[in-house]
Amino acid sequence: MTSSAAAVATRYAGARLPRVEDNRLLTGHGTFVDDVTRPGMLHACFVRSPFARARIKRIDATAALALPGVQAVFVAADLNPDVREAWHAVAGKDVPDTPRPPLAEDEAKFVGDPVALVVADSRYIAEDAVELVDVDYEPLPAVADFTKAVNSDVVVHEAYPDNVAGGMGGAPPDEETFSSAAHVTSAHVYQQIYAPVPIETRGLVAEWEAASRELTMWASTQTPHELRAFAARLLGIPSQNVRVIMRDTGGGFGQKVVPMREDMCIMLAARKVRGALKWIEDRRENLMAAGQARHVDGDVRMAFDADGNILAADIDFMQDVGAYPTPYPVLTTAAIGMFFPGPYRVPKASFNYKTVFSNTAGLAAYRGPWQYETLTREILLDIAAREMGMDPVELRRRNILRGDEMPYFNPNGMPYEHVAPADTFEQAVKILDHEGFRKEQKDALEQGRYLGLGFSAYIEPTGAATGHLATEGATIRMEPTGRINVYVNGGSTGNSLETTVVQLTADALGANIDDVSTIQGDTAVTPYGAGTQGSRSGPMTAGAVNEAGAILRKQIIAMAAHLLEADESDIELANSRATVRTDPEKSVSFADLAYRSYYEPGQLPPGMAATLEATARFTSQAMIHWANATHACTCEVDIETGHVTLTRYIVSEDVGPMINPNVVEGQIAGGTVQGIGGALLENMVYDESGNPLSSTFVDYLLPTATEVPAIEYGHVEIPGPGVGGYKGCGEGGAIGSTPAVINAINDALAPLGVTLTRLPASPVAIVDLIEKAKAEQESGASGKDR
């Protein structure tokens, strides 16, 4: 941080200001991809495989092409050979990747696999034409259950004959520690598929200008600059010939980080048709083909000494990557093992995993893609506490890391610092009134009511500074009116980047916040950035605004000092004015400064530039900004119906100083609700043949206001290592909520001898476990189903 930046007062950062986006969005004046209309625009619709695995023997588009309004039908032979390069920056060009053809070649590999692309004058005609494309399929055996895929007779990709996409092992388990420990707890935890399901599905408008060989795209994306670079690589054209415009995006949650196969098809086809080409995904397509998430199966165990101190932790798991995974979540699978020790004092840790292909939709990124490590660890801790006759709060209290232990390296080498997990944990316990709840729970049980309490603690990396994620740019310009525009790469998908960037810029320059606006998401005018992913936006945009703001602030002060005949050191900026600190009567407005700079530059002294604009790049010197939180959930379970009612929900989180507490709490709430959905409702089910059984919202259930209690917030503010001490907050809610809910259910059902470790905790699953436990008790069995 520069000395001039260090002296900047914060007037707006930390304030609960209304979102600047809200007026536009709430009055229906947002611009989403489907709002984009271009002259002569055509519409695209995909022909998708109805089989999980089938040989494509022939595609006859004769009838479809005869339909009035149909302009073209493309198959793999038309589009796939035009691919030049198809690597993503998140992985890099030298990292081996799995197959990802734009259209299915020879064989369809999941239900929903795109096998042809229809282009027509309207979406309605295109959808009608899809039904007329005659595809001769030869159905083949499929493997839909990834737990049975390794070395199956069915091979998803010939290049991977054992169906194992990859894997990694850390240090081997210390079996001597496990065999000699006073207590060892183990569990088998299965997490179902659930998906990001953004309110706005995927969409793209691509317009090719043949004369200039330029491509313009309007996209629903989290990473406009990476989409631009990917398109240039894919088509083999200079990147300066590609422009991506991202206006408003209705949610991404990781699904829109990297371009997927359908996006590739639209880019390739755009050069072959007249006019712009629009593709808007419908909800059924989104659920069938936009990518699955989570879906992990594994065994976890922990060894404890006689006092309940953790001695060792081990996780062995496999993750389903479907047929065509995107690279991001496959790479983050390793994080499940690396982060498994969590925010606890764990002397020894080990992990082993495989990523496995199946004939289902490919794995896509989803908010906290390594969440399984928190899910399994926190469930295991609660089971261990009950087995040792200890309250789960006490077990965590004995093992959770304190601030005075930082820096701390977990046994897998992850360097924790600038965090105090014990602080968020104790704050959550206090807000809950733990002892009061235990009394209420005991009294309720005597009345035949089953109340439960679940905790979940985690530590997460935010703003990880690796590869292209390590840098971010910003341009700040004072316009001739004295008002200010800040240009950032964008990717805002509901996470309020517009608001926080405006707050940061107003502080950086001493401007009134009403005088600051932001422009994002247009690659023609914004600096390169990696977009919204990995909870990076807060710390990285703060760094970029700080760098550019410091340059522009220095220029404003120099101009003001000349006009006011004062020393630069005596100039202060506030309220969109420059004032002489020792003589407040002497001041000049930003509007006056800008007027002189743009319209009367001759009044400036020789050698002083008339520039009121600065572009700068911030490169993070901190590898990771660690955030952490504790979630606490209480519930009541109806043991007759299996219905779960959440009664309280508390989140204590440390994301450093908050740029805008409303935004932070909104991010926590959004993630928390998604995690609650994953615990109780959401389940993307396939039958044994690979047919999706939940491709509409009738079958794929999402949480609503009736399932979610009011969320109570606690904040611990430990500054991170970067500019302003800010840490990211985008993914934590979704990481911590699922295990907290499952632990609350298991706590409620503990008197019945029930422990649920196969998600989701649906009513039928809960009733089945209760009935099974009852039958075992009646037959004298003492084991628990896990």
What distinguishing features does this structure have?
29% helix, AldOxase/xan_DH_Mopterin-bd_sf, 786 residues, iron ion binding, 25% strand, Aldehyde Oxidoreductase, domain 4, oxidoreductase, single chain, alpha+beta, 5-stranded mixed β-sheet, disordered N terminus, 7-stranded mixed β-sheet
CATH class of the domain at 400-462 and 624-786: Alpha Beta
Oligomerization: single chain
Structural class: alpha+beta
Using only CA atoms, what is the Rg?
28 Å
What spatial order of strands do you see in the largest sheet? 3-5-1-12-9-10-11
The CATH topology of the domain at 400-462 and 624-786 is Aldehyde Oxidoreductase, domain 4
| Sequence stretches where pLDDT stays below 50 over 5 or more residues | 1-6, 781-786
Assess the beta-strand content as a share of residues. Answer: 15-25%
How many DSSP-defined strands?
28
Number of helices: 20
Shape: globular
Overall pLDDT metric:
96
Largest sheet: 7 strands, mixed
The CATH homologous superfamily of the domain at 400-462 and 624-786 is called Aldehyde oxidase/xanthine dehydrogenase, molybdopterin binding domain
* N-C termini distance: 52 Å
GO molecular function: iron ion binding; oxidoreductase activity
Domain Aldehyde oxidase/xanthine dehydrogenase a/b hammerhead: 27-141
Protein name: Xanthine dehydrogenase
Organism: Mycolicibacterium agri (Mycobacterium agri)
